[in-house]
Amino acid sequence: MPFRSLNLLKLQKACCRLVGSLFLLPVFHLGATSGFLPDGGESSLVGSLAADQTAPAIAISTEGGFIVWQDSGGNGDGAGIRARRINRNLTGSLQPFWVNSNTTGIHETPQVALLADGGAVFVWRGGPLGKQGIFARFLLSGNSSTPVFGSDDIEIAPAGSVQNTGPTAVQLTDSSVVVTWSSYGSDGSLYGVQAQRFTASGEKIGTPTQVNVTTAYNQKESALTALAGGGFAVAWVSENQRFQNSADIFARVFTANGVALTGEMRLNTGTNICASPSLVGLPAGGFAAAWSEFDMATPANGWDIYARAFDGNIVSENPSVRINYYLPYIQQSPKLSLAGDTILAVWTSLNQDGSREGVFGRYLSLSAQPVEDEFGLNQTVISQQKDPVVASDGSSRFLTAWTSFKSLDSGFDLTSRKFVRPASVAAVTCDIARVVDSSGRLTGIQLSWAAAAGASYQLQHSDNMASWDISSATQTVSGTTSSVTLPLSQSGGFFRIVSLP
Questions:
Q1: Distance (Å, rounded) from C-alpha 67 to C-alpha 8?
Q2: What is the pLDDT of residues 66-86, one digit of tens each?
Q3: Centroid of chain to Cα 313
Q4: Stated pTM of the model
Q5: Range of 488's domain?
Q6: What are phi and psi of 391, to 5 degrees?
Q7: Does residue 499 contact residue 483 with C-beta atoms inside 8 Å?
């Protein structure tokens, strides 16, 4: 019984299912797929540390990067900002180090952006609760056991007067750095979105500028991304801008010099209440966005995740689309990253993994359309797994991290997982045959396929089509065909034959 292969963008595979102990049936066609696979299971990028580690952020390139988090283990009046270098294999290297030099007040919600010379810029909010400011610190080198910073904490928005929140940072193609945040009263009415530019060495360029044009009520929860053309885009939540009790996602595009190229653009196309935007720049210009929407038509479904893409002319051909398949309860706080031609969106989902919050994701095309089913990232499911973030090396690897409750003794730790895309290979066509003994009794199933000489193949098994385990040793063939036999003891679940580099 022939089985049509699935033509992937970069990876070719065929999937089938053993039903009971009698025969194999084709399952269903996945259509276009991302080609990314999990690279191992859960691991820790920061090691075993005392107290709670929460609210991670990561930034990587092909040479590695940094993870930063909020740490209750010291260096502040209850919380400080801690970071660790990530090596080119996407594992933790050297020892964790404290980022904030000022230890007065609560320091939290950090973000990190890589600098072109191998350094990084960290931003966070810190100071007395309810009156926190926004701070930055530029790391000139993180390749030695003693991190080299360009200065102590740089005050972007002062602490002690009004509340500032939601900082984020990015380096542009001209090496300048942009930081955005929301500041209470900065635009004359509740929260407004501010932006500050820096040189690559951490010197301020001018003074903060206002991003939002509409100023009534709140404009907050800013998201930021660099654009391929050299500029940047900022998105935020705007309240009551269209009608009473509305909450929409708006955005503007700027040049690298901070000159606005667009007015305010609404990204969501429905009338639901929106929150928590995330942006990622696209290779041909433009950007993709994701955010949370509350299902007003079916309130029992709670929040969902929506996405939409805009091309280099900042035009979208599609309305916003819901990307989570699982509807009950709450799906919230999405994050986006881009590797090659694939976007990975990750978010927190309540009760989907069977125990409070879990971490789920879905691959999207450059037009922000889903290309595979959603899948669970966390393998530990007890209690809370939440607040995921994702970064990529720009081509073939995604690195994810999230806050994970371990135990009453150890509290919250940080968990990570990698997803990689093997090299492009030829398609696999799978044929299925029954294997019987001399008495005609069925003993197994044989899968055979046309092979490319010198290519390597591997049989993988899954119970949920999300995470896959190796079922047979990798085989490198010298001829034009290859095969593997499954005994009846392996019946049940899904199987696929994967071509490896």
A1: 31
A2: 999 999 987 778 899 999 999
A3: 25
A4: 0.81
A5: 2-35+424-500
A6: -140, 165
A7: no
